[in-house]
Design goal:
Number of helices: 12
Radius of gyration: 31 Å
Distance between the termini: 123 Å
Helix content: over 70%
Strand content: under 5%
Number of strands: 0
Shape: elongated
């Protein structure tokens, strides 16, 4: 009876050992185990050039650990962020870039990291000019565009001579114009539905936050028509004077004047 128990226990132990060995044998082999950091980087770059973003990300992560504390590891971190961005993983790309900027503030790659951070947000599908859809405009958020602007602005201020700064400044102008156009588009949306208080608020926001951009012209015109619809002639006339002074040839002036004339003389028979 004792011998039988030992036999059963022995069989169980052998089975457990066999399963353990089987599990170990199924563990994927690390093909980079004998590679130098330089070879890992070269292979990662080949994967980037081939558009194999997942493979490139994995190799850059290997390189970060294998070459920790070296400039090559910093390079790997930034290039991993680019691969994550191209792979469609915006949150991970931004997290990688934020970590790089925080850990390596004096790195020569910080200017590129800021530029790439701006690009990730700039090209966000829910950002610039995505308001041309059927979604309720009041539900849309321009945070990605504003975050892109802040990254480009930091790049321009900290690294005015960087090769990435001229392009960043052009994108900043585009973003400001786009954000102002968005506010005016929302104001127009509200005005067309008779929500004149909301229209005034958004038009005023465009005027105060984005001075000197093309969209301000229409924002002033919306103020004129909305104040008129709300029965506020003094505010209407103030907005009209500002529109006339700053945009004397505005296409909105004639339309507003005709609208006001029709309202003031509707009772006349000649």
């Amino acid at each position: 009876m004792q011998r039988s128990r030992l036999s059963v226990l022995g069989t169980s132990s052998l089975l457990a050992l066999s399963l353990t060995l089987g599990a170990c044998s199924s563990t994927p082999k690390d093909i980079t185990a004998g590679w130098s950091p330089e070879r890992i980087y070269s292979e990662a770059r080949d994967e980037v050039n081939a558009g194999s973003w997942d493979k490139a990300i994995g190799l850059f992560e290997k390189l970060e650990g294998r070459a920790a504390g070296t400039p090559l590891a910093q390079q790997a971190q930034v290039e991993k962020a680019f691969a994550q961005y191209r792979n469609g993983d915006k949150p991970q790309a931004l997290a990688t870039l934020d970590r790089f900027i925080r850990l390596h503030p004096a790195s020569p790659g910080v200017d590129y990291a800021l530029y790439l951070k701006g690009l990730v947000n700039f090209n966000d599908n829910t950002g610039l000019f995505s308001f041309i859809t059927s979604q309720d405009l009041s539900e849309r958020d321009q945070k990605a565009a504003k975050d892109a602007y802040e990254s480009f602005k930091e790049l321009s201020n900290r690294f005015p001579d960087s090769k990435y700064t001229p392009d960043a400044r052009q994108r900043m102008v585009y973003i400001v114009n786009s954000l102002a156009a968005y506010e005016v588009h929302v104001a127009r949306y509200y005005a067309s539905r008779g929500a004149h208080v909301a229209a005034v608020n958004r038009a005023q926001q465009a005027i105060s936050e984005y001075q000197g951009v093309p969209a301000v012209e229409e924002a002033l015109a919306i103020l004129v028509s909305s104040y008129d619809a709300m029965g506020m002639p003094q505010l209407r006339d103030d907005a009209q004077r500002i529109l006339e002074k700053n945009y004397p040839n505005s296409r909105f002036l004639k339309a507003n004047q005709e609208q006001l004339k029709s309202k003031s003389s509707w009772w006349k028979i000649w």
